[in-house]
């Protein structure tokens, strides 16, 4: 049944990691599993996460490396201290919802990928209706995405978002124009950790969009307390202290003051003054 969820799994994992993902069925066990790896690497050269149903209400996600991943591992070992810190925080976040085991008894605070035998195993139990879309998506978010996102951080994926378009107007509706824009990196792994640390609840008005909109999705945004547009050189962000989740209304409201947005406390005081 998990094989029928491949499109859902790929979408969730690509959005969560910021990396293109390949996947395939693994029929080597009693129940069909799904293997996932980075699309720009051959499977044998990539870190691989295998998501497997176990027991009656359990899923296991196991990270391992392909047989010829030595060059990939060497590149990951060159990651900066900040990248390693974020990767460890991503893996540590799994422990809030699953049993976590890291190779050779290493801990979430000090693990390193020393060779191709490195593994991480996360098991989540007590999953009701585990093959429903919502359950599969939640399992991906809690087990697969943080682990693969940690590997993406070490490997060096950095997706880029374009800034707002320039003020130049097209001469006619629908006209095609070439615009050169400044682009600044926004790391989806920071967003992932921010929401796992703070929860998907607005830190100004306390709205929980997921409860309000239901099937329409949890509409939550991540706000940089120091705006990216005001920063000079790119710098690492600590999701615990530099980022907060906001509902779209509050996020828009804090940016009505420019160039320095309203602080959460300032905007919150405006709400309480009504």
From TrEMBL:
<dbReference type="InterPro" id="IPR002711">
    <property type="entry name" value="HNH"/>
</dbReference>
<dbReference type="GO" id="GO:0003676">
    <property type="term" value="F:nucleic acid binding"/>
</dbReference>
<dbReference type="InterPro" id="IPR003615">
    <property type="entry name" value="HNH_nuc"/>
</dbReference>
<keyword id="KW-0378">Hydrolase</keyword>
<dbReference type="GO" id="GO:0004519">
    <property type="term" value="F:endonuclease activity"/>
</dbReference>
<dbReference type="GO" id="GO:0008270">
    <property type="term" value="F:zinc ion binding"/>
</dbReference>
<dbReference type="Pfam" id="PF01844">
    <property type="entry name" value="HNH"/>
</dbReference>
<feature type="domain" description="HNH nuclease">
    <location>
        <begin position="189"/>
        <end position="252"/>
    </location>
</feature>
<keyword id="KW-0255">Endonuclease</keyword>
<protein>
    <submittedName>
        <fullName>Hnh endonuclease</fullName>
    </submittedName>
</protein>
<keyword id="KW-0540">Nuclease</keyword>
């Amino acid at each position: 049944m998990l094989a029928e969820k491949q499109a859902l799994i790929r979408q969730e994992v690509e959005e969560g990691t910021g990396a293109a993902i390949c996947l395939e069925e693994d029929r080597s066990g009693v129940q069909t599993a799904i293997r996932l790896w980075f699309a720009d690497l051959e499977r044998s050269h990539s870190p691989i996460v295998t998501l497997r149903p176990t027991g009656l209400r359990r899923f296991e996600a196991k990270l391992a490396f392909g047989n010829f991943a030595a060059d990939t591992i060497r590149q990951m070992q060159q990651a900066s201290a900040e990248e390693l810190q974020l990767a460890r925080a991503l893996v540590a976040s799994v422990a809030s919802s699953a049993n976590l085991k890291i190779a050779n008894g290493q801990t979430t605070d000090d693990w390193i990928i020393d060779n191709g035998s490195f593994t991480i195993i996360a098991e989540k139990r007590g999953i009701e209706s585990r093959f429903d879309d919502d359950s599969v998506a939640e399992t991906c978010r809690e087990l697969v995405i943080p682990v693969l996102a940690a590997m993406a951080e070490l490997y060096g994926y950095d997706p880029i978002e374009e800034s707002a378009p320039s003020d130049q107007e097209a001469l006619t509706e629908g006209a095609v124009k070439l615009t050169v824009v400044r682009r600044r990196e926004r790391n989806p792994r920071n967003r992932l950790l921010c929401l796992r640390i703070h929860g998907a609840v607005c830190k100004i008005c306390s709205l929980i969009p997921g409860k309000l909109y239901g099937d329409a999705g949890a509409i939550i945004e991540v706000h940089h307390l120091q705006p990216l547009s005001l920063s000079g050189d790119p710098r690492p962000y600590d999701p615990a202290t530099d980022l907060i989740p906001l509902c779209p209304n509050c996020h828009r409201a804090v940016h009505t003051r420019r160039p320095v947005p309203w602080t959460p406390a300032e905007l919150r005081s405006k709400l309480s003054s009504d």
